[in-house]
Design a protein that fits this description.
The complex is a heterodimer. By secondary structure, chain A is an all-alpha fold. Chain A contains 20 helices and 2 strands. Helices cover 75% and strands 1% of the residues of chain A. Chain B contains 3 helices and no strands. The chains are: A mainly alpha, B mainly alpha.
Chain lengths: 484, 102
C-alpha cells in the first residue's frame, strides 16, 4: 500500500467526492457570512453546486479501462460506481431543491452541509472495495442521516424519528461489523476482491461462511429496509422532515443496494446457491409485508414508506436472478424508482405546506385545487404502480424478465401478484385525488417555482425514460457487466 | 501464549450480552451502552485476529482504530438525539417514545 504510484487519474476517479466535500465546506462558510433572514438562497446554492458536480462527474470522471482498484485497493472506480454516483448526486440535487422554503430548514447551513456529506458517503459506499473503507463509508452516510431525520428539534415526531433511526441503525451496523471482523479473521484479508480467493484457498466450511454472510446481511438489509429489518422505515419516514424522507427512501436505499450487489457478488461466490435462496425469501417477505401493510395506511408518508419497502423487494428479485441482465435490471430499477419517488414526495411536500396535512383523506378535491399538481401525482403514482408507458412498468418488466430467464419463475409470479396489490393502493389514493370533492375545492394550492421545476423535471423523465428505455438500459447493462 | 479461541469466545460472549441488552433494555441510554459493548467485542476480535493471523500487516489495527473513531462520533450523535428528545418529553424510556405506530 504505497503512494509512490499516485497518478492524476486517481484524482479524477475520486473527483466527485472531493468536490462534494468542497461544496459542504463552502456551504458552511457562506452560512457564517449571512444573517438568518438572508439565508433562504442556501438551498439553491446547494442544488446548483450539486448540478455542477454532476456535470463535472459526467464529463471527467468516466472510468477508464485500466486497473479499477485505486488508492491501495480501498476504492474500485468502475461503471457501477460511476452510474450510482450520478444517480445519487442527482437525487441529492432534487432533495436540495425540495428543501427550499421549508421553515426551520431552508435557512440552516448545517442542514445542507450534512446533506452533501451524506451524499459523499453514499458515493464512497458505491465504490468501496475494502471492508475498512466500506464500514467508514456506511457510517459517513448514516450519521448525517440520523441528525437530518431528527433535525426539527421543536417537533416531537421528528426527534422521535431521529432517535429510532439512530438506535436501529447503530445496532444493525454493529452486527454487520461483527460479520466484517469475522471475515477478516477467517481470511486475513480486508480487500473484498481478495476475500473470495482467500476463502477458496482456505477451504472454509460453507456453514461458517453462511453464518458470516447472515451477519453482514443484517446491516445491508437495514440500509435497503428489507424485511425483517424494515420496522424502522414507517416511523422514521413519517417523522423526518419530508425532503429527508424522500432522500432516505431513494438515495440511501440505492446506495445500500450498490453495496449489497458488489459485496455479495464479490465475496460469496462459494455459497451462491445458498445466499440467492436467502435473498429470494427475503424479497418475497419484503414485497408481501410492504404491500399488505400499505393497504391499511391513512397517512400518505407512511403509505409511501411501506410502498418503498415493497419496492426494495422488487429490486431484490433482480439480484436473486444472479445474471448480467438481473444486475442491470436492479440498477435500472433503482434509478427509475429514485425519479418516481422524488416526484411523489415533492407533491406531498407542496400539499403539506399549503393544506397543513399529510392525511390521505384530506387529498380529496386536489384535482380541482391544483390540476398540474394532481397530474404530477398521477404520473408518479401510476409509475410506482407499474403502468405502461411510464418508467415503473419498464423497470418491473426487466426485473421479472431477469427472474424468469434465470429460472426463478415462482419468484417472478409472487412479484407480479404483489404488483397488483400495489396498484390497488396507489389507485385508491388517486381516487381520493380525482373523484372525491371537499368543501375547499375553490381554495387553490399554489405551487412554488422550485417545486414546479423539480416536478416537471421528474415527470418528464418518468415519461421519456419509460417510452425510450433502450439507451438507459444499455447503460445499466454496461455497468452490470463489470461486476461479473 | 493464550490461545486465539479464548479471545474469540470472550468477544462472542461480550457481543451477545450487548445484543441482548440492545434488544431487551427499555432505556435509550442503556441501549446506547449495549451498542458500545457490541462495538468493543468487534474491536477485540479485530485486534486478536491481527495479532494471531496477520501480525505483519497493519490492516487489522487500522480497522480497529477506525471503529474507535466511528464509535465515538456515533455515541456523540446518539447522546445529542437522546438529549433533544428528553428536552421535549422528559423521558428516555423507549416504550413512552411511541407517537408513531402502524
Amino acid at each position: 500500500m504505497s503512494f509512490s504510484n499516485f497518478e492524476p487519474a486517481t484524482i479524477l476517479a475520486i473527483l466527485p467526492e472531493i468536490l462534494l466535500l468542497g461544496l459542504a465546506i463552502i456551504i458552511l462558510l457562506v452560512d457564517l457570512l449571512f444573517k438568518r433572514s438572508e439565508k433562504s438562497f442556501l438551498g439553491w446554492l446547494t442544488a446548483i453546486g450539486l448540478t455542477v458536480i454532476l456535470v463535472v462527474t459526467l464529463a471527467y470522471s468516466r472510468p477508464t479501462g485500466e486497473d479499477p482498484l485505486i488508492l491501495g485497493g480501498m476504492l474500485r472506480h468502475d461503471w457501477p460506481a460511476y452510474t450510482f454516483n450520478i444517480v445519487l448526486i442527482f437525487a441529492a440535487a432534487i432533495t436540495a431543491i425540495l428543501s427550499v422554503g421549508i421553515p426551520e430548514i431552508a435557512d440552516r447551513g448545517e442542514y445542507f452541509a450534512l446533506l452533501v456529506v451524506a451524499t459523499m458517503g453514499m458515493n464512497l459506499m458505491a465504490a468501496s472495495a475494502d471492508l475498512v473503507m466500506l464500514f467508514l463509508a456506511i457510517e459517513t452516510t448514516s450519521i448525517p442521516l440520523y441528525i437530518l431525520a431528527g433535525f426539527l428539534k421543536g417537533d416531537n415526531k421528528s426527534t422521535e424519528s431521529g432517535l429510532k433511526y439512530f438506535l436501529f441503525g447503530a445496532v444493525t451496523s454493529a452486527v454487520m461489523l461483527y460479520g466484517f471482523s469475522l471475515l477478516y479473521g477467517l481470511t486475513g484479508e480486508t480487500n473484498i476482491y481478495r476475500l473470495a480467493e482467500a476463502m477458496r484457498v482456505g477451504e472454509l466450511s460453507p456453514l461458517l461462511l453462511g453464518g458470516t454472510a447472515l451477519l453482514v446481511l443484517v446491516g445491508f438489509a437495514f440500509k435497503i429496509s428489507a424485511a425483517p429489518f424494515h420496522f424502522w422505515s414507517p416511523d422514521v419516514y413519517e417523522g423526518a422532515p419530508t425532503p429527508i424522507t424522500a432522500f432516505i427512501s431513494t438515495a440511501s436505499k440505492a446506495a445500500g443496494f450498490a453495496v449489497l450487489i458488489r459485496f455479495m457478488l464479490a465475496v460469496f461466490p462459494a455459497i451462491e446457491a445458498e445466499w440467492t435462496w436467502i435473498l429470494a425469501i427475503m424479497a418475497t417477505l419484503t414485497m408481501t409485508i410492504g404491500n399488505i401493510l400499505a393497504l391499511a395506511q391513512t397517512n400518505i408518508k407512511r403509505l409511501l414508506a411501506y410502498s418503498s419497502v415493497a419496492h426494495a423487494g422488487y429490486a431484490l428479485i433482480g439480484l436473486v436472478a444472479l445474471s448480467t441482465l438481473g444486475t442491470a435490471s436492479v440498477v435500472f430499477y433503482l434509478a427509475t424508482y429514485i425519479l418516481t419517488n422524488l416526484a411523489a414526495f415533492a407533491v406531498v411536500i407542496v400539499f403539506a405546506r399549503a393544506a397543513g396535512s399529510e392525511e390521505i383523506a384530506n387529498y380529496a378535491g386536489l384535482s380541482r385545487r391544483s390540476p398540474y399538481l394532481s397530474l404530477a401525482f398521477l404520473i408518479a403514482m401510476l409509475s410506482l404502480g407499474g403502468m405502461p408507458p411510464l418508467v415503473g412498468f419498464v423497470a418491473k418488466f426487466y426485473v421479472f424478465a431477469a427472474a424468469v430467464q434465470s429460472g426463478w419463475i415462482w419468484l417472478a409470479f409472487v412479484g407480479v401478484l404483489n404488483a397488483i396489490i400495489g396498484l390497488y393502493y396507489y389507485l385508491t389514493v388517486l381516487k381520493v385525488v380525482y373523484l372525491y370533492r371537499s368543501e375547499e375545492d375553490d381554495n387553490l394550492i399554489p405551487v412554488p417555482r422550485s417545486y414546479a421545476f423539480a416536478l416537471a423535471l421528474c415527470s418528464l423523465a418518468i415519461i421519456l425514460i419509460g417510452t425510450l428505455s433502450a439507451p438507459w438500459f444499455n447503460w445499466a447493462m454496461n455497468a452490470a457487466q463489470s461486476l461479473f | 501464549m493464550i490461545p486465539l479461541s479464548w479471545y474469540l469466545i470472550f468477544a462472542a460472549i461480550l457481543f451477545s450480552i450487548g445484543l441482548y441488552g440492545a434488544l431487551a433494555r427499555r432505556n435509550a441510554l442503556a441501549i446506547l451502552m449495549a451498542i458500545e459493548l457490541m462495538l468493543n467485542a468487534v474491536n477485540l476480535n479485530l485486534v486478536a485476529f491481527w495479532r494471531y493471523i496477520t501480525p505483519g500487516a497493519v490492516s487489522g489495527q487500522a480497522f480497529a482504530l477506525i471503529v474507535f473513531a466511528v464509535a465515538a462520533s456515533e455515541a456523540a450523535v446518539g447522546l445529542a438525539l437522546i438529549i433533544s428528545i428528553y428536552r421535549r418529553r422528559r423521558t428516555v424510556a423507549m416504550e413512552e417514545i411511541n407517537m408513531m405506530k402502524w
